């Protein structure tokens, strides 16, 4: 097809080929209200989603041409969308109210079998008081509209709750096709209204930009009502006022100030951290069984290959921890991590890194059932540390020389006040959500005594695959062994949540590579997904090679969550039983000492509600956090304010910790040289 952008008419037209463009177009797409999106698949593809529901998926010849087309289409779309907003008066407002369900005489109880499902609800239409008509809607009127929409959102949630509270069998069930359609269309209507309201905000922002002095904050762009009121239904409330306005919501309002974005990185004192006593194993299946209808409804709205990044998943499938904390749990064997640098040869260090890498995934999963960690809020951070007795770390048994001199060990192992030598190593960890769209997390861990650190950034891309969900971990990690001047690059496997309608479980899949340029050693690891017929679960195979000679020095096979077998080039074999490996508990500061954006304090009310089994309350707290994030994101977009990260800096395509060990050690060595 040959596509032509008709700027004047606001149309995207296509023809059979370039020679036939003088004929009538084979098809046209109205760009007013359309959404133009570059695809995540590659650097050439983009999609045009029309307001009518039509979608065109197009592919440019290269990234430069794609950017040109996307930019021109977005400009044309914005122009014609704004023109519609200016030339058409707003539609008459409507409100919807449910029939009374409080008594035995309600229509729900008296409903006859022949009654249509949709007639279960009374839909009343009436004009809302609009006040004095003015040529241009003023800021205060936008606040009124926002309040009306908040009431409508509350009533829409009541509607969904009413449907979901229906029995699963009988004349009228929660899985009735008409009711499922009503749920989907009501949700789509509210999403559409929110998009229209956002267009109004942008329109007024552009009108006000020319008349306001530079630096003025347009406060009226966001609703002046509290987040707690946002969940009120206008007519009836499910909780008393104090319950409906939890402390977390008040706290979330107080920490949403823009000044938080420019704070200096906080130095965490590991002495304030205490051994973690939290042990939330995700082994309960009850919630999944009870919420089967919700999963069915969610699946009915998804399409194969759909990106789930922006899909709000039901609260009951959540783990009781943030994704940032899950990354920290990959460090639950700090003895194996520290032992990497103790290897006497490059070959031994690479093999030790592979051993640590393969043992890190088992503890990252909390129980057998597949649940999803909280999506981190942009700016969210997580801090922790581990203390590992020196006697528990494997030393170099293959060499007569220690990995570092005694004097060096004494100097590096003293406490901060230099009073006594410590008998343990400390591994510190920090993670931060550096981007929301796309969702990118950065994390960093270091052991100063052993001069080793790891820096990584991960972009999680989720896709719906039918009866499973696939998560691609896009990004790269870098392990630095400063004592040896070696750097190891590595990637992460894909994760899959299988059997999401029965008992969901997790498996890993894909090929990952570990490489050290300096030594010429590399490792290739394959995580095998279970074949349709036969085969083992969680199987992994791999090999370590010397690239120059193309010699395999070690092979590994087994299951990443149970038993691993390492076979070395000299014929020796080593078995690692992951179920018997000791797990070192991380150390975390108490909640009262954590900052407002630290994971456990940020999500504490969601976690407490999940522990209590109160899914509705957990959903309310979760929605408050997500709504605050969306509001702040809209405000930044409208005021063209860039997001400022706290601990990680953008370098090329990746994110690097602001004060990595390789910089501080290098600076210390330079200072020592200057002093000498």
TrEMBL record:
Residues 81-113, 614-634 are annotated as: Disordered. One of its GO terms (cellular component) is cytosol. SUPFAM superfamilies: Oxysterol-binding protein-like, PH domain-like. Pfam families: Oxysterol_BP, PH. Residues 94-113 have a biased composition (Polar residues). The keyword Phosphoprotein applies. GO terms for biological process: lipid transport. The keyword Transport applies. Belongs to the OSBP family. This is Oxysterol-binding protein. It comes from Dryobates pubescens.
